[in-house]
Structure formats: C-alpha cells, structure tokens
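Lecture notes, unit on protein representations.

Consider one protein chain, 308 amino acids long.
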Amino acid sequence: MKALEKEVIQLKTLIELASLINSSFDQDEIRKRAIEATTRVLNAEAASLLLLDETSGDLYFDVATGEKGGRVKQIRLKKGVGIAGWVAEHGDPLIIHNAQSDPRFFKTADKFSGFVTRNIICVPLKTKEQIIGVLEGINKKDGRFDNSDLELTETLSNYIAVAIENARLYSELKETFYITAETLTETIELRDPCTGGHTKRVKDYSMIIGRYLGLKKGELENLELAAILHDIGKIGIRDDILLKKGKLSEEEMLKMKMHSIYGAELLHNIKQLRKILPSGIIMNDMMEPVILTGSKVVKFLLWRESCR
C-alpha cells in the first residue's frame, strides 16, 4: 500500500506541475514550485536548481529548499566543480550514496551553509541538447536514492527545462513586440518634432505612478503598453494640422483631439491589444490623460510640448 500511495503522490505532483507549466509564463513561480515538488516526491531534506550563467559559465543556485536554502543561494560553482559541476560538464546523471567520501563533492558548500550532505541525486537540465543547469535532491529521508528516484528526477528536470525554454521564448517574443511598438510610436513622433520623446516620458511617468499604487504585474504590463501606444492615433491626423507651426484653430484642435479615438479604433482591430483599451488613454475636456487600470485610476497632467 505504501508503494502505491507513493506512486499516486508522484503522479499527482507531475500532473499539477504540468498544469502549472501549461498555464503560466511566470518563470520564478514555476521553478519555485518545481523544486518544492522535487523535495516532496523524492522525500528528501532539500532540493536545488542550479542554472548556468551564460556570461561567466558558473553555476548559481536559482532555487534551493531546506532550512539552509537561503545561505546556499549565495554560493557559485565553476563548471566541473562539485557534484553539480561535474554533472553540468559531462551531461550525465549521478547518484552518490556517500557524498562526504566522493572526491568530486564540494565540501566548502557544507561548511559555508552549515548543512551536512549525506547523499545526492543530480541530473542535468537540457534544452535541445544544450545543458542549462542541474537539478539535485539531497539527503533521502528513508533509505537511499535508487533508479526509480533517478527516473522521477529526470522527468522533473525535463518539465523544468521545457518551462524555462517556453518562458524564454515568450519573453523574447514579448520583448520584440514591445520594441516594435516603441519603434512605431517613435516613427510617428518623427512627423511632429514638437513632441520628441513624449511617449517615453509618458511611459516612464506611468510606470512610476503604477508601481507607487501597487499595481499587479499584469496591470503594470497593460499600463506600459497603453502608455507606449497612447498616441498611435496621430497616424490619422493630417500633416497640415499635425505640423502646423501656428496656433491651431478651434476646428483643427477638435480634429487633433480625435487622435485618441483613432488610436482606440486601431487597437480594437487587433484582438491581442483589446485588453489594453480599458487601460488606454481617455482625453477629458482639459486634455488630461486618465489611465484606468482595473479598479484603480492613475491621473496626472502631462504638459503638452508644443511649438505653437
């Protein structure tokens, strides 16, 4: 019965982790939950995820559980140093039943953290045959790590590697989109030399106020995008109005104010951008932008840079 209960717990944990990976791009949360799951299903005292620093090539503790996890996270390892370094360098998993007597074991880590390592299971973390780190379980509570633990740890490492790769791709795609959006708005600003740098200042001010109000991560992302694209509707304003050197007439000013409507219409045609419309810029009678984000309102006066 005990063996069956263990398998049920392991299967449930894997299903929960797979569900998390498929529903979230929050790398920190996924990695934290995955290492907690590793500790639990291996019935280990601690577990850790070490990732390779692409710049230095060192291994650093990204997540570490156990009572000494905080101190362990201050340690960095050269590739090839310690059990984790050996696995990262060779790409082969290891089960070490007596860590203290293994010549590859990095004893400085125990001395620094105050933790006593008895046994270790360690597997490489791979994406497309590239090693990006290692996953390890430390100090089996009941008996010794065996091949079934190794299979489970390798499965968990595959899950984590997929999550990291998915999050990386999502992050790159998102960054490309934001850069494209900012480039588009800068191109529009080039039509009107009077407002150079205006969009960047709106974005910077908006984010400062949004963070001050304690907006959530998703709300801040919508706020940033809304700030970047708030003047996108200027693309629909005729040059003889947008570039007029003198003062705008009342009729021309009304047409200029239409740029916020044009912007909303443009964004509404793009399904993925409709979510920022409630956070978009609404122009009131005093031309003060009001940024709505959820139930909170950020309101501030932006001086209109004008050559007129």
